[in-house]
Amino acid sequence: MPVVSMTVNGKPASADVEARTLLVQFIRERLGLTGTHVGCDTSQCGACVVHVDGRAVKSCAMLAVQAEGAEVLTIEGLARDGELHPVQAAFREHHGLQCGFCTPGMIMTAVDMIRRIPDLDEETVRDELEGNICRCTGYHNIVKAILAASQEMR
Amino acid sequence: MYQFNYQRPKSLADAEALLAAADDPKILAGGQTLIPTLKQRLAMPSDLIDIGAIKELDFIRAEGNAVTIGAATRHATVAQSADVRKHNPALAALAGGIGDPAVRHMGTLGGSIANNDPAADYPAACLALDAKIHTTKRLIEADEFFKGMFETALQDGEIIKEVTFPHPEKAAYMKFPNPASRYAMVGVFVSKGPWGVRVAVTGAGQNGVFRVAEMEQALSKNWSPDAVAGIKVSANGLNADLHGTAEYRAHLITVMAKRAVAAAG
After folding, report:
1. Are residues B146 and B185 in the same domain?
2. B155 and B209 share a domain?
3. A79–chain B nearest CA distance, Å
């Protein structure tokens, strides 16, 4: 079996894996980081979004071995010293979740879009959320939270 | 997923050698179609040759009257490229409209055209922009490359290296996405350039991307939305499914062509 090594949330992670192991399986089942969710398993819902080398990707549509040598960031790696990341804080403040299942992916997507796009407006946020599905909120408060976090982080 | 051997070559030469040595290999580029396909057990390759670590396939180069893009260049990179935006904004916009942001961070140009999904966006750009597809073996004109649904002129062991897109004078791509999947129900790419006028349609044809000669002739005489507004495309050979009939798609082709010409200015 191939050995895969990467950095996850700043810590080295290495394991023997079957080549067919998905990145999300590696993260959840081998590292026990279950904050990254599997929603649809058909790469549409975005609950599994993590960052690989600074870019948001769907970890259910990527093999663990493809992340060899990469820096991976999951929802567990966002908070610093017990302080929520500004996007996490904004989701709480603006009630950007109901059941919470899509939230890890929403937040990882939001952090990525805020990094890439300095002047976010509502239309852009909604457009950028195309790959993240929420079945509870109707998206309104998610969009509000992302816009608020974007303002705060500017 | 079935089991497979996984290889991650660092050079094109190594990739070719691995491909030649394997039983029933598949090339893994961004994996945004291949991995979901493997997960559904719709394919059972003996080997995956991952070209994601081959640096020489990831570049964008503007020279002369064309932009050349490496096969493993991600959609997001093409969409953001200053060179592509300057010389071929329609192509940049197309790349920025594929899938969603996370898919665009992984999916590649070479992967898209090698797969030739009948609803994919890049095949329309290649066909409408008279693109040159350079492989490890030869140069293939876009007109000769797309052979049918999920079928291309590529032979076993042949790898796409780069695609050259000559600069258009005018061009635009208009997509009518399926409201759920966001794949093109119909996408129309119109262009005007040294090759004359081209109109390429994706999403609609049972055999994948195709050109509409009648629209090309009409636009050659009169580059305006009105020139295509009255052209009715035949529903023969168009897709029909629960999302829309062949007639509906035929109608959409005219509507999208009109909008594309208007957008191209």
Report:
1. no
2. no
3. 22
Looking at CA atoms only, how far is residue B130 from chain A in angstroms? 30
CATH topology of domain A86-153: DNA polymerase; domain 1 (1.10.150)
Could you give the number of structural domains in chain B?
Answer: 3
pLDDT digits (tens, 9 = 90+) for A1-54: 789 999 999 999 999 999 999 999 999 999 999 999 999 978 899 999 999 999
Angstroms from A83 CA to nearest CA on chain B: 27
The reply to whether B44 and B76 lie within a common domain is no
Residue contact A109–B102, C-beta within 8 A: yes
From A2's Cα to the closest Cα of chain B, the distance in A is 8
Structure tokens at B244: 């829309």
DSSP string, B182-240: -SEEEEEEEEEETTEEEEEEESSBTTS-EE-HHHHHHHHH--SHHHHHTPPPP-TTB--
Residue B107 shares a structural domain with residue B210: no
Amino acid A154: pLDDT: 86
Q: In chain B, whose CA is at the least distance from the CA of A47?
A: B102
Contacts of A38 in chain B (CB under 8 A): none
Residue A50: closest C-alpha in chain B: B102
Residue-wise pLDDT for B32-79, tens only, equals: 999 999 999 999 999 999 999 999 999 999 999 999 999 999 999 999
> Where along chain A do its domains lie?
3-75, 86-153
CATH no., domain A3-75: 3.10.20.30
B76 and B131 in a single domain? The answer is yes
Q: Is there a contact between B51 and B72 (Cβ–Cβ < 8 Å)?
A: yes
Contact A20/B35, CB-based, under 8 Å?
no
Sheet containing A11-16: order of strands: A11-16, A3-8, A71-73, A49-52, A55-58
Q: Each residue of B66-95: pLDDT tens digit?
A: 999 999 999 999 999 999 999 999 999 999
**Do B154 and B111 fall into the same domain?**
yes
B33 and B111: one domain?
no
Contact B100 A46 (CB under 8 A): yes
Contacts of A65 in chain B (CB under 8 A): 6, 8, 50
> By residue range, what is the domain housing residue B239?
170-264
CA atoms within 13 A on the CB side of A125: 23
Q: B98 and B183 in contact (C-beta within 8 Å)?
A: no
